[in-house]
Design goal:
- This protein has helices at 17-21, 46-53; strands at 3-7, 26-28, 34-36, 40-41, 59-63.
- By secondary structure, the chain is α+β, with helices and mostly antiparallel strands.
- The chain has a single domain (3-63), classed as 2-Layer Sandwich (Alpha-Beta Plaits).
- It has a three-stranded antiparallel beta sheet with strand order 4-1-5, with helices on one face. A two-stranded antiparallel sheet has the order 2-3.
- The termini are close together.
- The chain binds iron/sulfur cluster.
- The site of iron/sulfur cluster has 14 residues, from helix 1.
């Protein structure tokens, strides 16, 4: 199964939580917004934790 991970940068408040829980797949950019390092993954892994814990629901994962 392949998953696509996206971040709504307009919603992101730059809290850094997604990077804390899943540094394999999230990083902060120079604008202090989160970026997805690998948008398509076979296993969600910690990206699911990031999605569930983002305080503004900016992270979305969906099957593709
Ligand atoms: S957890 Fe959400 S609000 Fe915080 S940096 Fe990541 S995407 Fe942005």
């Amino acid at each position: 199964m392949t998953w696509k991970i996206t971040i709504d940068k307009d919603k992101c408040i730059g809290c850094g939580l997604c990077v804390s829980v899943c540094s394999d797949n999230f990083a902060m950019n120079e604008d202090n917004k989160a970026e997805v390092l690998e948008a398509k993954v076979e296993e969600l892994g910690c990206a699911k934790d990031a999605e569930e814990n983002c305080p503004v629901n900016a992270i979305k994962t969906r099957k593709i």
